[in-house]
Please model this.
Amino acid sequence: MAPTVPTVKLNNGREMPLVGFGLWKVNNDTCADQVYNAIKTGYRLFDGACDYGNEVESGQGVKRAIDEGIVKREDLFIVSKLWNSFHDKEHVKPILKKQLADWGLDYFDLYIIHFPIALKYVDPSVRYPPGFFYEDNKLVFSKASLEETYHAMEECYEEGLMKSFGISNYVGSLVLDVERYAKHLPQTLQIEHHPYLVQQDLVDLCKSRGIAVTAYSSFGPSSFLELDMKRAQDTPLLLEHADIKSIADKHNKTPAQVLLRWATQRGVAVIPKSNNPTRLAQNLDVCSFDLTKEEIEKISSMDKDLRFNSPPNYGIDIPIYA
Model:
């Protein structure tokens, strides 16, 4: 029997599962099956994005589960993201509708501004997903402000194309800036968050504003090894860290479960992924045990302010965290 996953109440009254399935780096040829199997395992939140290039296949997995009566649409919490190339206000709604059509949905439960970066528009018929570069490995920026993009998101929210909306990869100063112009505060902020990058001040800032925080890359460098990122290759793996393994042994859990529980016990949602049925179930079952206050503090003390998902680490000259 699948574990009961707690939810976090968003500032618009809706409930979001505290544990979900992340679709970043899920291969197209396995994606539909992975989503379907994750639903069968008990996952209800799926975190996708235009940039992941697998929204059609993700939607196929969802449709199969719904058609078989495993879930109803309203049981699921589907998340997607607005890519940088579509920040101009006239492009926000059309690309949102394209993404909904790719998923086979009428609405997203949560739609997020992926990065605080506005790039020149690339027509989906030319290249999709467009990636960072406009052409010939050249970065070309749009003149759209974050405020312009945000207001376009609010219009889509009020129209019902998304039930909630949020931001991602924003730093504290940008969260404070959103307050200056928002008609509706964002419901969530999604950030890189693991013991090497705790960002406690940012988490606390969001908590004081009623903005829920979702962590991505909860296992730190492990998420980036397959991308051949040198910074990840040079960093000791959290999953093999002696302190994490010791805490895991004490609770008869895996290191991955401890890392996820460290986040969820502090009210931060997580979106791990796995293609292994055992680990898939284990990752979902991370709210059935509690770490001690001392264990949480010990894990948090590993903070190195070490960020992996920064554009310059991919050779992209947009130092948004400088």
User: Anything to note?
Assistant: The radius of gyration is 19 Å. The mean pLDDT is 97. The longest helix spans residues 89-103. The first strand starts at residue 7 and ends at 9.
